[in-house]
Amino acid sequence: MQHFFNDTSHVVADVLYAAGHLAPLRIAEPQSGVRILIRRDWDRDTRGQQQVAVLSGGGAGHEPAHAGFIGEGMLTGVISGSLFASPSMDAVLAAIREVCGSAGCLLVVKNYTGDRLNFGLAAEQARREGLKVAMIIVADDISLPDTPQPRGLAGTLLIHKIAGYHAQQQESLDDIQALAQHACERMASMGMALTPATLPGQARPDRSPELGLGIHNEPGARHIVPDSARDAISHVVTPLATTLEERGHIDGWIALLNNLGSCSTQEMGVLAASLIDHLGVARMTQLIGPAPLMTSLDMHGFSVTLMAADATMRKALQAPTDAPAWPGVRNVRQPDTFTPNLAARNGALQDNAPQATHIAAALTQVLSVLRDARDDLDGLDAQSGDGDAGSSLVEGADAIEQALTAGRLDTAHSERLFAGLGQCLATGMGGSSGVLLSILMTATATSLEQRGLVDSLWQGVERMQTYGGARLGDRTLLDALIPALQALQKDATLTEAAQAARQGAAHTATLSRARAGRAAYVPDSALEGVVDPGAEAVARVFETLARCL
């Protein structure tokens, strides 16, 4: 199973079944054999007397088009065919009969042969029945400049919105048709896909990335392999901009960025950023999307529509609608900026900081021991983690050494010493270990304003446990640190505290189950007989302090 389908022959029916349950729609009875969805609040004998009905549709597989754009201020209804196949003339005619009152009905049709013929024949038949019907054919694709019949793409949705708005204003059918035609002449679309669409139950076609690939897997303008999202946007937008400029429309464009099916949210965000950078806020003043608007099943690609919208068109596009899939229009502008207050980052370090020679010397020895232990600690960590515990500690040691050498770390006052250590570890030591040790040092520094050193270290440990979630016995550095602090709390010497830390570190080799850190995700057998690297580092630090102080 590669896609979440049930019976592949019932994909369209399942999609419309969900739409019928989730939106205020009326649907054609399934046994009728046609797929028509109409606004629940629409009645041709009441609304249809004052307001033009706007119908669209075509092949399925482009969801949320077309059913997602039914609503007040947009489409009155849609007619769906099978996947990538036009609905029948009978289905279109039945939809016209259902919605068309004396105000008339406008058909918005993408420029594909099947759609033109079936919608066109239905329009002619409806006229014979005395119904007032007009049709707009959308041909916004510019990827094949020499083709006599440009294809209809996502720009069709802009026509849905513009026609739907003017219908809501109870303008005449002739005026709405003219406004829609005017809008068609001021827009252009093009797409790019890395992979084509996959029809349910079929294998994905083996095709290279294409510029201008059609939404039914029709051939594109040429094969192309973009090297970045920025490059892809350039290949698509440059000819679009040229086309509008050749028509006399230089700037003030609205852009529609459409996900053709399987681009991730992140990809669409990067494409949107690239589109804004490429055009700039002077030329592209508003953006619709990025969003899946007219997709092509799971095609991995996007399309861009540029429209040189005048004031009337902008008003129509920006007007509210309750069509569920319409994302709205957003202004594109340079973001406001502010200067973040980062003073606290450097508050614990200062130039010409006071120094206590014996403390500075002991700290230098601790840093040297940690550097020498790098390979041992990495080796221990490789058996239960990603093998970088020693390397990470060296990063922290280097950051502390830099501040100490520069005379910016206060070693004469314990509160500022621990605050400085916390700052160095936060900025210089990567991974969660750096953050946890910074929490230990910072919380200890805060507590030193009111408590002694040992009690303050206990406060730091409690904060580590609160944020990190580890406890004694979970195979972490706490298994060495807590026994050492327990010894100091009983007025033990530093040597005795170091012995307690060493015993605690050794005990981690007997703990076959970790409950915190990366070691919690490896089999118990991988931990047997292995000392936790964090606990080992703490033991070596206390042993060094016992020798130096």
From TrEMBL:
It is an enzyme of class 2 (transferase). This is Dihydroxyacetone kinase subunit DhaK. Its EC number is 2.7.1.121. Signal peptide: none annotated. Residues 7-326 form the DhaK domain. It comes from the Bacteria. Residues 357-547 form the DhaL domain. Pfam families: Dak1, Dak2. Keywords: ATP-binding, Kinase, Nucleotide-binding, Transferase. One of its GO terms (molecular function) is phosphoenolpyruvate-glycerone phosphotransferase activity. InterPro entries: DhaK_dom (IPR004006), DhaL_dom (IPR004007), DhaL_dom_sf (IPR036117), Dihydroxyacetone_Kinase (IPR050861). The lineage of its organism: Bacteria, Pseudomonadati, Pseudomonadota, Gammaproteobacteria, Oceanospirillales. Gene3D superfamilies: 1.25.40.340, Dihydroxyacetone kinase, domain 1, Dihydroxyacetone kinase, domain 2. SUPFAM superfamilies: DAK1/DegV-like, DhaL-like.
